[in-house]
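Sample intake sheet
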Amino acid sequence: MKKLLFILLILVPQLSFSQPKEEVRAVWLTTVWGLDWPKRSGEANQKADMSEILDSLKSANFNTVMFQVRARGDLMYPSIYEPWAKVLTGTLGQNPGWDPLQFVIEECHARGMEVHAWFVAYNVYSGSSTPPSTTPEHIVNAHPELCKLYEDNGSYSWWMDPGIPETRKYLVDVSMEMVNNYDLDALHYDYIRYPGSDFDDADTYATYGGGQDLGDWRRANINQFIYDVYDSVQSVKPWVKVGSAPIGIYHNIPGANGWQGYYDVYQDARDWAQKGKHDYICPQIYWEMSSRFPYLVDDWVANSYGKQIVTGIAAYRMESKKEATFPGEEQSFYRKVLEDEPKAGWSATEILNQLDYTRNAGGFGQTYFRTLHITYNVKNIHTLLKEGQYKYPANIPPMPWKDNIPPNRPQNLTLINNSPTSITLNWDIPVSPPDGDTVKYYNVYQSSVSPVNIDDIKNVVKFQVR
């Protein structure tokens, strides 16, 4: 594992602007139905469009991309388990001739950004029909015994049955193939829940329920998958983080009632943090500051069990028409999340106020849904972030439960005065610490006073020197 090291330098002061030195600044880069990417066909076009997105994010000092690698049982990388994503070529299972996940990893890392593989777990296909035949076969065709068709308000989708042990093993196997083959920074899970209390799993419950309360049994099924995948990742790449995006209301609290993760879809995200099987949580808190947002942020932060809360913010609600970019299946989901149908057409100020609130509440950062609402500069949000709350870059917050051994000091630091306005620093890499980790990059600080305050991001003169 590589680490960050600091080099101090006393020079002239810079302009002051208050913001955290460490903060996750992420987007959900959505590939399902090509919502964020890809918008065009062909390797060259798709690579160019992705590079443009990443450049835009980097210019506003974003540091994390949640790249949707498994949208509906199809993948953004080659696999022995599941077919290529339809959005890449227009045909499910058709090889695009290149590896989007590898490309995103290389391009993000070159820009100093993390890649979290966004993996939709149990929701595996949209519509009432079955997928076309592919090689490898889609899970609905390969293992129909693990899948159930679910209907919600006239919208149909296929879901894997969390109560069948083979479902859990299959999802762990698909996840670990990716972990073993790619230099990922994190696994990021979505739809790790039941679609609703009316899910047709009576036969599964009769076989595996063992007399447990139905709700407790369903939660235990989801929990066990999270335990198994976290332990599997730890066993091979303990530096890879595991997180998820649960729905915004864990359970009803004063000021925030609605569709509940714990009771309505059997999603016990706090158990995952409390048991040490999650490193961070991105709750989807998609309401206004004048509504549920502040109550829910406070609730998640107060019940984080020492793990990182990175608040999900609904950038898509700056659109003038709510749900304008969502097909029927997703509209059904957002009707449940926002059951009182609050107004859309948010101002950029609403987004910035939510960002500020997460900082003041003790959160570890923000994740925006969706990417193009940021990079298309809807209501000037990209510019406002770049010139305001994200004016300075931020390091990724450390996770001491994953690595609590700091790097050693650099060796043989020398300074050469080239001119009254130019100097050169030279140093040798530090001695390896007991865990053998190498240094990933250096931050160089400047200040007019000593000691240098390295907690103040405005004192960074060079960020992520490699």
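Comment: Residues 168 and 236 are 19 Å apart (CA to CA). The chain is about 30% helix and 20% strand.
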